[in-house]
Each structure stands twice: as structure tokens, then as C-alpha cells.
Amino acid sequence: MKILIANDDGIDALGIQTLARHLSAQYDTLLVAPDRNRSGASNSLTLTRPLQPSQVDEHAYKVDGTPSDCVNLALSGVIDGPVDIVVSGINHGPNLGDDVIYSGTVAAAMEARHLGRPALAISLVGTHHFDSAAQVVMMLLKDSHTLAMPAGVLLNINVPDLPYEQIKGLKVTRLGYRHQAQAPISAQHPRGVPSYWIGALSEPYDASPGTDFDAVANGYVSITPIHTDMTCYQAKTSLENWIDVVTL
Fold first, then answer.
1. Is residue 248 part of a domain?
2. 222 falls within a domain
3. Which residue from 5, 6, 93, 182 has the fewest beta carbons nearer than 10 Å?
4. 3-class secondary structure, 22
5. What is the pLDDT of residue 247?
6. What are the residues whose beta carbons fall under 8 Å from the beta carbon of 48, sequence distance 6 or more?
7. Domain with 40 in it: what CATH number?
8. What is the pTM of this model?
């Protein structure tokens, strides 16, 4: 099995380097990552200029673009040969609940699913125990051939920041929700130009049992199947009834 490794924190990030070290010990790997931190890039593709991938070593490339750019180039055959599965991460921090809307880590896995490859997005809910997250990935990949997922589905995995032996187990979860993000923060500009930092993430609003927030808070690895179909099927009937009375 050949594995494509990507991320959004950049090629030099500890998370992706830890993941590559573990995976390359057992699998044929290809690492393709942004040349700098692209956290929060979501599913964006670079369409206004050409991309310039450059080889870092025999099995690694950096790209002057987004996480989705990296996966797109790799799976389109521009970089190296075909791969069987994509693992995106290890992200520095959580991708829980509605974090997935903004996450470049999740977006890289989503791009893989668009291009017909199974994909995992892996995040460490903290900044210390990256080896624990890598060991979780190794364990899941060992039996990945027995898992059949519908088209368009990827696995969003969040690992508590604990030594591996202290993790209580795995839980299949749904996405929770956060409160509204905090307000933007004013940033001083040397020329007096109005400048702002985007506000920090807020605490969970829905962290009830069954959510990814709840699983991680209780020492479990959260595994959430997510897909690209954003249709709200529950709203279709109400919408159809409404447009019956709308006159163009």
C-alpha cells in the first residue's frame, strides 16, 4: 500500500514529520505538503497563478499552495506515481465539530475523496503527544482493507493529547458544535492601517454524549465519518411546499 501524506501546518511541522516517520517504517510513502503554514485554508485551490512543487528529498515535496493543491497535484500524477490512500495530518490542535468547515487538514482528505481515494484526517487535540496520534493511524491502517465506506466519505479523527497507553479506546461520533467565534482582535499597524486578527474559536455549544467533543474530553479517540454532500434533506419538503406558492 502506498500512502500520500499531506497537512495544512506545512512541511516542517512536527505533526506531519512524526506521522511520516511512523508510516515510512512500514509503508511506501509520499509526502506532499504546503511550504508554509496554511491552517484555515479550507478547500481552497490556487487558480490565479501556477504552482511550483519542489522536491525536498526522495519521498517528499513542498508546494507553494494550499493543502488541497498538494493533494490535487499528487493524485493527478504530477508528483510521483499513484497512491492507494491519503492520510492528512497530524494537525496541531483539534478539528472538532464545525472546525471541519475551515480546516485545511480535513480539506486535504476531502480533496482525496473527490479524486477517488480513501482518506483519513488526523488531528491531535493538543501539542505534545504526536506519537500517540501516529500510533492510532498505524493501528487503523492495519485493518483498513476491511472497511468499506460510501463514495465521498472520509474519516475525521481526533486524538486526545495523552500517552498512547492512557487512551481509553475508539468511539464513532458525530460532529458537535461550537459557540459563535470570538470577536476580531484589533492589531496595531505601523502605518495606522486598520488591521485585525480573526477571533479565536469559542468553547463547545453541543458537546453532548455521542459528539466528537465528548469522546475526546473523556480520553477516547473520536472517529467521525463526514462527506461532501451538504444538502439538508430535512429541509427539502418545507422548501418544496414553500415554492409551490411562490410566483415568478
1. no
2. yes
3. 182
4. helix
5. 67
6. none
7. 3.40.1210.10
8. 0.91
